[in-house]
Amino acid sequence: MTLLIAADLASIALVTCLMLALPVLARPTMPFGVRVTTDRAGDPAVVAQRRVFARLTVMMAAVAATLSVPVLLAAGHPAVIGTAVTALAAADLLLYHRAHRKVRAAKDVGGWTAERRQGVTVDTTFRTDPIRVPWAWSLAALAVPLVTAGIGWSRYGELPATLPLFLGYGIAPAQREPATLFNAFEPVVYQTAITLLVLALVVILLRARPDLDAARPKGSARRYRVYLRGIAALSLLSAACLNLGLLVSALQLWAIITPTSLWQAAAYLPLAVLLGAWLVWEAKVGAAGHRLPALPGEEKEDSGLAQRDDDRHWFLAGTVYVNRRDPALLLHARIGSSWTLNLGHPIAWLLIAVLVVALASLGLSALFGVIDLPQKQSLF
């Protein structure tokens, strides 16, 4: 029970720290997903919302800990931790959205948009000399599935008739399933899917519209190039870390190592390293590379323009973008190192429709017995 309480409090502390870091790591000109000029980045209205958000977030953490610990002592089930963390994250996101609305209201009332003439900057070298996929960083992500497949193939003939239930980052020794080819090599299937998905995402992101600043066209373009190269490399490293965790689980699945709490923690260790790497990246580089130091000549760069980016097209605190007049399909979101689809673009809805149809077809096929879906828990 002590371990469950410690896990509960640690999870609450982790979610709280991540939420407190969101406004701190954001670009100074993008407080709570609202675009402002450099002159307004330190406006009293913005500073006040940062302080209120931090206080309310800490208060919500205290409430979550106060309510979840007694429930956990009474129920004694790990599901309480997941429920508490989910509720806390939802409450913190609502607080973030509240701060977004307050800053946007201050911007509208104060007429901040009219203080500078709006404009855009374009760097055609992102098309004539695009950033290439850093294939060297993909070697680890590609090597781990090959090593896992090799180990599994050498072990396959010695496997028992049944295998433990594979849970992704761990196994359930008490639950058994037939040692079919798919069940035995399921970790490799996950690894392959992760690797291909990350590679595809990297290729797409490198072709997405750059997030440049009209006030600092030269400096923002250079920083964004550095930023995009780092994002590509770190994404491929992420695939390698995810695959390493699955390798540890695969070794337990094939009874090469005995499943213990220590090995369970070892499966999650690459994920912890991955989280730390992304946090360090955000702290040192920042979204769109805004934390990178300026080169000589860039310190005082100011075109006198403000980036044209209407808040009316952004929803859910800068995470959802809808603009029918914008030809861009994929663009950088206003929160962290993330991208979002332009839901005003017809192709975006076509992609969503294809995904919905594919999932619906899969569900109907399973419902009518055409295919059998494995009854398993989440990959994590």
TrEMBL record:
Coiled-coil region: none
TM ranges: 6-26, 52-73, 79-97, 135-156, 188-206, 226-256, 262-281, 347-371
Entry keyword Membrane: yes
Presence of the UniProt keyword Transmembrane helix in the record: yes
Superkingdom of the source species: Bacteria
Keywords linked to the UniProt accession: Membrane, Transmembrane, Transmembrane helix
Protein name: Putative membrane protein
